[in-house]
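>> received
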Amino acid sequence: MKHKVTRSPWSWIPTLYFAQGLPYVAVMTVSVIMYKRFGLSNTDIALYTSWLYLPWVIKPFWSPFVDILKTKRWWIISMQLLIGAGLAGIAFTLPTPFYFKASLAFFWLMAFSSATHDIAADGFYMLALDDSQQSFFVGIRSTFYRLAMISGQGLLIILAGFLEKTTDSIPYAWSLTFFILAGLFLLFFVYHRFILPYPDSDSGKAVNTPKEVMTEFGRTFSSFFKKEGLGLAMAFMLLYRLAEAMLVKLASPFLLDGRDVGGIGLTTQEVGITYGTVGVIALTAGGIIGGIVASRQGLKYWLWPMALAITLPNAAYLILAIFQPESFLWVNVAVAVEQLGYGFGFTAYMLYLIYFSQGEHKTAYYSICTGFMALGMMLPGMAAGWIQEQLGYQNFFILVMILTIPTLLLIPFMKIDKEFGKSKKEVEE
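>> returned
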């Protein structure tokens, strides 16, 4: 009878999407700050942590298996247990002499588990809710995902900074931090094991055989690469965030590095406040504003302003590098301006992915597009650390501004339906 018990979506959607956001932040942002505090070079940090994007790049290739094997519910709770194991593995290895290779291996485990969790959670959301509930809770799931970002990039980093001071040991402080995260994921695993509903449609039995599924996937994949305007679309997906992909890998190291090497010299706790709290709030606000205005005039109308918003505010980091202000307030203002612009400009990117995914297989097309999105962040990020160490921070941020040019050169060539992105009310009017 337990399979028939109904659960309020409020009992599991907030925790599910909070659990979805935390490992992504840990892999993409927390790892960068942690390795910087351990004294690794920017070259190594950017190269090895950029490789962690790979599971999200190739996610479309194994998403069919999540549909074929087991239920979405099984995948969710299993991946949460694996993520918890990965976090515990990182915590155990950080105080050891071989911490870098070992912790990186566990970050890889987390990255693959997190990407698989994304597939299962988003699929489960559609199976467990009807259309009206899906529309109602889309804002709730986004809010708790953002709260996970603030908790990971902000509160977690502040905690690590506090432990660095109280324990007087960077390895021990970060080990404790990851043990706390591991414990949290054990709680998520136990909670969702009992609370997640059992939708009838989440049977775990594919309608088609694995061979049929893979054949259909092959057809869908090949049809994507036959879409009209593919070359321009791929250029947009890979180049729209080129400058941001370079900048984001070095933002935290720049804030942490001493003034003698061109950095700002913030403490770990201050980076948690600036980049992980103020920055994420500004990023979220930019995204909300972008969504509102795009629903009124459409993507085509806002494409230029959003492209300028995601590129020009990168100059805030160049200004910080030139003047190296001692005022913590001005550092926060600069980071907030850049993140606000990024959030606003990123709206155009996500809307374009949806626009280009239109067609018979829009879900699969969108999944492929998100793979290109991750690749567009991964490749530039890998080289960012080495380039920065050759140029210094000032010249690196000048290069970042030069790399905004390809983004702006693409915009005049983009062909987008002027009605796309508008709300139904705006289209009718």
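>> The two ends are 50 Å apart (CA to CA).
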